[in-house]
Write a structure and sequence with these properties.
The chain is mainly alpha-helical and about 375 residues long. The protein is built from 15 helices and two strands. A two-stranded antiparallel ribbon has the order 1-2. A hairpin with a 3-residue loop joins strand 1 and strand 2. The longest helix is centred in the last third of the chain and has 34 residues. The N terminus and C terminus are likely disordered.
């Protein structure tokens, strides 16, 4: 399926053109990396905001091709598994990123059992959040995708039990599209009608602007969830949903701040404001999911490492300037230059060295200014 998006791999392969989405994702990843706290977390609000922001930021980096061994991900995983994030009531949201790291399989299985207990106690964060959707999605990622699995049957039954003809799933497009995306592989009574009503709800809930842009609820996060629910399932084969998804991606691009982030939003389920880090992470994931339909991938890790090399070179050159300045002052203080001037060849060599040192100083200054202002303009 061609959505009119020309996407290219960003990495070691030499390419002639880079798509605007690739550039936008790269810019947003850079901003996100700079926003990570020293303890490895993301977010600015309460403990719950930190947990949610950190899990979504980690998932965004993994979706973008960052390996689990990347320093930012290692710090985030430590925060989620042994740091403050592991002590929060809703630490189980860490399942999202950890499920993609094989060595944490046993911890993920344990967290899923803990989430079962929360569901049985009706301890969900909000009535409109259907936790069995998250649980069933986890089993899919764990390759436990069979009706012969008792847990799969349990979650499918729980999800269908919360459907109604008037509201589908909670009258929410993001929740309804999530349920439709997960249940497509299963057979159950009245499936065709449930899907027709669900698709009708998602279409009806879309806000279309001048037939060019679309969103759901006027919210970035809600729109992002609908985008990757459609993109990551056969729902994108529906002509209406595919058209709305393309318009929603255009709206999403337009909403991005010039510095590479999306603004905070009021959460739909109450609580603290959803931080920029959380909203930006969701947007990155949605753009990657949309572009994956064109079979393109965004391994941005290599670009970030290249930029790190520039920063390291900047520091090395800065040290060189300090050393050169110190040496020059020493030469002046001992009037060695005057002595060297008596020998023509050595005087010429001294002049050449001075020119080289001056060039190094200029280059170091440029690198230092660029590195300094890049930190200032990546957003706060």
């Amino acid at each position: 399926m061609n959505h009119g998006v020309v996407s290219h791999c960003i990495g070691p392969v030499k390419i002639s053109k880079v798509s605007e989405d690739a550039k936008l994702i790269h810019k947003s990843i850079r901003w996100l990396l700079r926003r990570q706290h020293r303890d490895g977390s993301w977010g600015t609000g309460s403990g719950l905001d930190r947990v949610i922001s950190t899990t979504h930021a980690a998932m965004a980096l993994l979706d973008a091709g960052f390996p689990p061994a990347h320093p930012a991900l290692e710090k985030a995983v430590r925060w989620m598994t042994v740091g403050k994030g592991s002590h929060h009531q809703w630490y189980v949201w860490r399942i999202g990123p950890l499920i993609r790291i094989p060595e944490y399989r046993s911890l993920v299985e344990s967290d899923l059992m803990d989430m079962d207990d929360l569901v049985k106690k009706r301890a969900g964060p909000h009535r409109d959040q259907i936790l069995p959707l998250f649980q069933l999605n986890c089993l899919k990622l764990l390759d436990r995708w069979s009706r012969e699995d008792s847990k799969v049957n349990e979650y499918v039954k729980a999800i269908l039990g919360q459907w109604s003809e008037e509201e589908c799933w909670r009258n929410r497009p993001e929740t309804t599209s999530h349920a439709l995306a997960l249940l497509e592989d299963f057979d159950f009574p009245d499936k065709k009608r449930i899907y027709e009503l669900g698709i009708d709800l998602v279409v009806a809930k879309a806000n279309v602007e001048a037939n060019l842009h679309a969103n759901w609820g006027g919210r970035v996060v809600c729109t992002c969830f609908v985008i990757f629910n459609i993109a990551e399932s056969s729902l994108h084969e529906n002509e209406q949903l595919s058209d709305l998804m393309g318009k929603a991606v255009r709206w999403l691009r337009r909403k991005c701040n010039a510095k590479g982030y999306w603004d905070s939003e009021e959460p739909p389920f109450g609580g603290d404001v959803e931080s920029r880090e959380y909203v930006t992470s969701a947007a990155i994931r949605a753009l990657i999911a949309y572009n994956s339909l064109s079979n393109f991938f965004f391994p941005l890790e290599i670009i970030w490492l290249d930029r790190s090399r520039y920063a390291r070179l900047s520091r090395i050159l800065t040290y060189g300037v300090i050393l050169a300045g110190t040496t020059w002052l020493a030469l002046l203080s001992f009037e060695i230059r005057g002595c060297l001037a008596q020998v023509t060849s050595i005087a010429w060599l001294g002049s050449a060295i001075s020119v080289v040192l001056a060039v190094i100083a200029v280059v170091a200054g440029i690198f230092g200014i660029v590195d300094f202002f890049s930190k200032r303009t990546d957003g706060k």
